[in-house]
Amino acid sequence: METIPHVHFKNDQEPIGFEAIDLQELLKQPQRPLDHNPFAAHRIHFFAVLFISKGTATHRLDFNEYTLQSGQCLIIAKDQIHAFDPSMEYEGTLLIFTDTFLFRYLAPAVLGKITWLFNYHSHTSQYDTFPHFSPLLEMVHDIQNRGTIKNPSPILASLLSVMLLEFEAHTPTSHNDPLLNTEEIKIFEMFRTEVVTHYRHNRNANYFAQKLGISYKHLNEICKTFTQTTAKSFIDQYIILEAKRHLNTSALSIKEITYLCGFDEPTNFQKYFKKMTNETPRKFRSRNRYIIDLP
Q1: Does residue 1 lie in a domain region?
Q2: 175, 210, 229 — which closes off a domain?
Q3: What whole-number percentage of the chain has pLDDT above 90?
Q4: Does residue 191 share a domain with residue 135?
Q5: Any residues with CB less than 8 A from the CB of 93 and at least 6 apart, and which?
Q6: Total domain count for the chain?
Q7: Cα separation, 158 vs 255, whole angstroms
Q8: What was the pLDDT predicted at 27?
Q9: What residue stretches are annotated with the HTH araC/xylS-type domain (predicted)?
Q10: Confidence of residue 286 (pLDDT cuts 50, 70, 90)
């Protein structure tokens, strides 16, 4: 049984799929009850950008710790596991938004550029912000809190686009990344979602191509463009990522994680894990277990 809490986007006041949250209100004085401990590992099913405006925060994301100073931010992709710094000696804003919001309100050309930011397989997650971001975030809060604009979504999407495009422009490898069209992005996102949903039952790339109604060759081409790796390698990398997440954030035994990752025998799982990582699951856990505390 999985022990990592799943957090979904659910805000009745913001059904558009976008919200700006003050960190002090979220973590110190929550305006609404939380169904999870934000300081313990939890998996989010939406995208997030964490901005630090004052102080220093040590944020935990998958197996890494990021020290964020004032004027820095962290991009968190859908399905990643993270935990907030419990010291609360910092202030800032958390922007959260769904993929539905992105596809509905961001221009295709913008979407094709900024999608790379959430590809944590090949890009950094930590960025420096810029002086003009402060008034942009103030505008986001103001528009959201005012509640007098009939349809604020296009305006909020425009402000979000400006900030994400700035990050993309300063990503070291961005000049080498081809511009994806909206259809390719949707196909890759569907592939990623299918892998997340079905990796326990099937690890064959052809199976996922058939579910998407495209050829294996087409899936491979899109996957290579987006992640610089084959569809098969992406599936393997995701399985290892999930295994590491469970090893790192749960008290589950190796045997339990074996079955949770879709393997019939612990021996097969351990051989697979060692082949992919050059170390045993037990050794990985001993080196990384302390990174993210249990809920």
Answers
A1: no
A2: 175
A3: 54
A4: no
A5: 20, 21, 22, 23, 50, 51, 53, 137, 140, 141
A6: 2
A7: 48
A8: 86
A9: 189-287
A10: confident
Q: Give residues with Cβ within 8 angstroms of 113, minimum separation 6.
A: 165, 168, 179
Amino acid 145: pLDDT: 87
pLDDT attached to residue 228:
83
pLDDT of 138: 95
Taking the C-alpha atoms of residue 52 and residue 20, their distance in angstroms, rounded to an integer, is 13
Contact between 209 and 216 under an 8 Å Cβ cutoff? The reply is yes
For residue 238, how far is the Cα from the chain centroid?
Answer: 13
CA distance 141 to 19: 9
Report d(CA 228, CA 184) in Å as an integer.
14
Q: Cα dihedral sign for 68, 69, 72, 73?
A: positive
Q: Determine the Cα–Cα distance for residues 61 and 77; give it in Å rounded to an integer.
A: 10
* Neighbour-count burial of 7, counting CB atoms closer than 10 A to its CB (0-12 exposed, 13-18 middle, 19+ buried): middle
Chain Cα centroid distance, residue 29: 25
- Distance, in Å, from the CA atom of 57 to the CA atom of 38, rounded to the nearest integer, reads 14
pLDDT of residue 36: 85
The DSSP output letter for 180 is P
- Residue 10 maps to which CATH number? 2.60.120.280
Q: Within a domain: residue 33? A: yes
Judgement on whether residues 246 and 165 belong to the same structural domain of the protein: no
Express each pLDDT in 9-30 by its tens digit: 876 555 679 999 999 888 876 6
Quote the pLDDT of residue 2: 57
Ramachandran sector of residue 55 (left: φ over 0; alpha: ψ -120 to 50; beta: rest): left
Residue 91, helix vs strand vs coil: strand
d(CA 182, CA 231): 19
pTM of the model: 0.80
Of the three residues 175, 206, 239, the one that is the final residue of a domain is 175
